[in-house]
Amino acid sequence: MEKIFDATLTIFLPLVSRNHGGSVFTRLFLDHPRSVGESYLEHQRHAFGFGVSLLGAALACLVHALIPGLFVHTGSEAIARLHDRMIVHRTARAGRRAVPLRT
After folding, report:
1. Model confidence over 36-48: pLDDT tens digits?
2. Could you say which DSSP state residue 94 is in?
């Protein structure tokens, strides 16, 4: 049990340690949103929306697994839509060009 605890500390201690650049709060709540050009609340809203979309797509895929005639394109359409929202739009905001997942 002690080895598992030590291994867990080795993995997670850098996540909360102050010695890895910036405060814990900044690293956990602000660094990633800033890296994608969003505030914390903007990132929270987008991530929550993605999560809800993914849950809906997952449920549709589970139903599709049981009854293949239902939700035939729902999963793939959700992935394409989310890809466009995340990659294409983020890239456009940064002034770069991205290729849509499908046309």
Report:
1. 888 999 999 999 9
2. T
